[in-house]
Specification:
By secondary structure, this protein is mainly alpha-helical. The chain has a domain of 109 residues. It is built from two helices and no strands. The chain is rod-shaped.
Length: 162
């Protein structure tokens, strides 16, 4: 019997390639999300450092113009950090939405591929049943031929004896 051939194998390969592409896109966006979270954490850490710097200036207790200028600079810089952190947070939300879309796309690609794989498995089982049926038929035919030949030999021997 012919070797098993599934008509949709090439389509299945295309689906596998598409799934890999979707996974690569997902990984790329996940990397961007991670980088964005790290950036937000850096803004937060830097803000904490500058707040500690400001607190140390207050503890000194000097009321010189230099201290006031430094504090003004710190508060201005903290305002900019907060704006940057807010912008980064909005970008993170956008990236997380994109990440969810990519996850859905991967799930759909896997679902399509799995559907074809299940169909392939079903067709392969049918093929195996057909092969088994044909082998059984061939064995039956062989056994019948063998039995027939055995009977012929027995008849010849019986005729020779009689």
């Amino acid at each position: 019997m012919k070797k098993f051939r599934f008509k949709l194998d090439s389509y299945l390969k295309i689906l596998e390639i598409q799934e890999k592409q979707k996974l690569a896109e997902l990984a790329e966006v996940a990397g961007k999300v991670s980088a964005q979270k790290n950036q937000i954490n850096r803004y937060y850490e830097e803000s904490q450092n500058w707040l500690q710097e400001s607190a140390s200036l207050v503890q000194i207790g000097e009321v010189s113009t230099d201290v006031w200028k430094q504090r003004q600079y710190i508060y201005s810089y903290l305002g900019n950090l907060r704006k940057n952190a807010d912008r980064a947070q909005r970008e993170l939300e956008t990236l997380q939405e994109e990440l969810q879309e990519k996850q859905k796309a991967v799930m759909e690609a896997r679902k399509k591929k799995r559907t074809i794989e299940i169909l392939r498995e079903k067709k392969y089982k049918e093929y195996q049943k057909e092969v088994s049926r044909q082998e059984t038929a061939q064995l039956d035919e062989f056994n019948q031929t063998l039995a027939s030949k055995t009977n012929e030999v027995k008849e010849r021997l019986w005729k020779k004896e009689n």
